[in-house]
Design a protein that fits this description.
The chain has 685 residues and is an alpha/beta fold. Helix content is 32%, strand content 18%. The chain has an eight-stranded parallel beta barrel, surrounded by seven helices. A five-stranded parallel sheet has the order 15-14-13-16-27. The structure holds flavin mononucleotide and iron/sulfur cluster.
Amino acid sequence: MAAPSDDPLLQPFALKHLTLRNRVFSSSHEPAYSEEGMPKDRYRMYHVEKARGGIGMTMTAGSAVVAEDSPPAFGNLHAYDDAIVPWIRRMTDEVHEHGAACMIQLTHLGRRTGWDQDDWLPVVAPSALREPAHRAEPKEAEDWDIDRIVGQYADAAARMQAGGMDGVEVEAYGHLLDQFWSPLTNRRTDDYGGSLENRLRFAVRVLSGIRDRTGPGFLVGIRMAVDETVAGGIDATAGLEILARLEADGLIDFVNVIRGYIADDPALVEVIPIHGMPSAPHLDFAGRVRSATGLAVLHASKVDDVATARHAIREGKVDLVGMTRAHLADPHIVRKIIAGREAEIRPCVGATYCLDRIYDSGEALCIHNAATSREATMPHVIPAAPRSRRVVVVGAGPGGLEAARVAGERGHQVIVLEAMPWAGGQIRLAARNPRRRDLMGIVEWRVGELARLGVEVRYDVIADGADVAGLEPDVVIVATGAQPRLSELEGGGDHVVSSWDVLGGDVTPVGEVLFYDDNGTHSAMSAAEMIARSGARLEIVTPERMLGIEVGGMNHVPYARAFNETDTRITLNQRVLAVHAEPDGGKGRLCVEIGSDASTHRSVRHVDAVVVDSGAAAEDSLYRELKPSSSNLGAVDIPALLGGRPQSVMTNPDGRFQLFRIGDAIANRNIHAAIYDALRLLKDV
Ligand SMILES: Cc1cc2nc3c(=O)[nH]c(=O)nc-3n(C[C@H](O)[C@H](O)[C@H](O)COP(=O)(O)O)c2cc1C
Ligand code: SF4
C-alpha cells in the first residue's frame, strides 16, 4: 500500500482549468432517484455523500435527457426543463463544499427508450431500426427534428452551466449521437448518412452548439464506444479517427472510454461486467486510447478494488479511474484510503442488483449497503449509542452479521451465536455456484468488521431460549433465516429434492432432470444453472409467464447462456402437480404430472430426478420460544422504526429483554431486505 503522499490515486489532476483533488471518480449512472425528472433531496444527498467520502469527481445523472422526445427510460433527469436549474445548483454547491468536482451527462436516447413514458412522444432515431433492449419502433429523424435536437443539446448544457456544473459529458454509446455515426444504426441517404463525414455531422453540430453556448471556461467531454466490438459497427480504427476529428476541431476536453455495444443485455453485460466476470476487462484498451490521443482519458468498467484502480493510474492507462458501483457499495473509499483504512472499504461484489433495479423496481439499491440513496434516514457512519447495552444476535447470515456490525459500531457489547461452524447463511449456499462466489465478500467484509469491533462470534451453537436468556441480554435479535419450503404437491413430495440440496452439494442430480421453479429467484436459477452445467439433461418448468421472474436483466444473461448452451428445455405457464415413482421396472425413475393454471390440460414427464424451489419458510422457532419472556413480546413500533426513533414497546413489564427478528426469520425476502431490516433497527438501539 502506498503512503498517502505518493499514492498515485491521491495525486491531483488538472483537467484543463479544473484541478481535481485525486484520480478517483464516479461515472455518470442514472440511479432513478429523480422525482418528476428533478434531482431533489435524495439525488443530491447520494452524490454529496461521495464528495464527503473524498471522491475527486462525481459525474451525475446518467443520460439526463435534453428533449421531451427522449422519453426517460429509467428515471432520467429532465435536462430540457428550466425548472431543473435550482436543483442542479443545490447539488453542485454541496458537492463543491465538500471538495469534489461535479459534472453531468447529457443525452438524447434516440431509439434506446420506450414510447409509452411521460409525454408519449414517438421515439426518434437516425433510421427506423428497433433496439432489441427497449423494443420501441422509432421514426426516422426528419430535418426539423435534427435542427431542434441540436439546439436542445446546447440549451441543456447552458442550463447545467447555470446550475454550477464543472462540465458536461455527452453520451455516445448506444444513444442518438452515436446512433448517427454507427453504420449499424444509420441507413440514411441524406447529408447525415453514408460517409463518415456525413455520419459525424450530427455530433459535430451538437458539440459545436454546446461549445458556442458555454464558452471555453466550461468542460465538455464525450463518453463513447471507441470500439463497438460488433461486425459492421465502429471498430477501434474508426473510433480513434472519430475521436481525433473531434479533438482536432477543439470540440471536447476529455474522453470517457467505453468498449462494446449495449443494444441488448448480453452485450451490455460485457460493457458493465457483473460478478463472475473478469475485473477491469477494458482497462488496457483505455490505455491504448490514451496513448493515441492528447485528451484526458477517463474509464470505468469493473474496477471494483483499490489495487486495480491504483494500477490503472500508476501504469498510465487512464488519467481518472472510475469506481462507480464501488461507490454505491462504499461512498467513503478515498477517505478510508487516506486514513490508511483500506481494509475497511465495503467491497462491491458485482451483484449488479443496483443496475437491474432501475428497470425492475425503479431505483438503484446496493445489495449490501442499505444506506446508499437513503442518506436522509440511514447513516453511512454509525454514531455511538448514548449507553452501551448487551446485544445477543442469533444467526450469522447477512442480516445477523449486519445487526452485529451496527450494534458493534454503536458501542454495544455484542455476542453472535451461529449454529454452523461458519458465517454466511444463504449467501454461503449462493456462493457455491462458482460464478457467484464473489457474493462471499458480503460475509467476509462483515466478519472482518466484527473482529475489528471486538464482537464475539460463537460458532457451532444451536441456541435455545435458555441459552440466550442465560447471556442476560438487553436486546435479542433473532436472525435465524429460513428453511426451504417443500412444494405443495398433490402427491409425491418425498420423491423430490430442493434447490438448496443442489446448491449445498448434498445432491447432484444426473440423467434427465426436471426442475420445478415455483419461486423465480436466484436460488432456483442458480441451482438449475449448476445442474445444466453438470451435464444432466434439464427441463425447467415454471408457472410464471417468464423464466426467473424475480431476476433482473443483467443477472439473467449468464443463466440464459447456460441454458442455451446446454439445450435446456424451458416450459412456462405450467405447474408440477404430482410426482410418482415409476412402477417396478422403472429403475428408480419418476413420473411427473404437469398441469396449468390457465387450462385443464395435463401432461406427464418421465425423468430420473425432480428438483423443486418453492421459496423458503421462516425459521422462527427460537423467536416464538423467546417471545413470552421479552418485554415487548416481539412487537415492533413501526412508526418509531420508520421515523428513526428507538423502540420502546413495553407490553410485558416482567420481560427481561427486548426481542426482535429480522430478515428471512420474519419472511423469505432477499439479502438487501435482511441488511436493511438490521441497519434500520439497530442504528437506533
Ligand atoms: C444504476 C446504474 C445506472 C447506469 N446508468 C448509466 C447511464 O445512464 N449512462 C452511462 O453512461 N452509464 C451508466 N451506467 C454505467 C456506469 O457509468 C459505469 O460505466 C458502470 O457501472 C461500470 O463501472 P463500474 O464497474 O465502476 O460500476 C450505469 C450504471 C449503473 C450501476
Ligand atoms: S449491488 Fe452489487 S454491483 Fe451494485 S454496488 Fe452493490 S455490491 Fe456493487
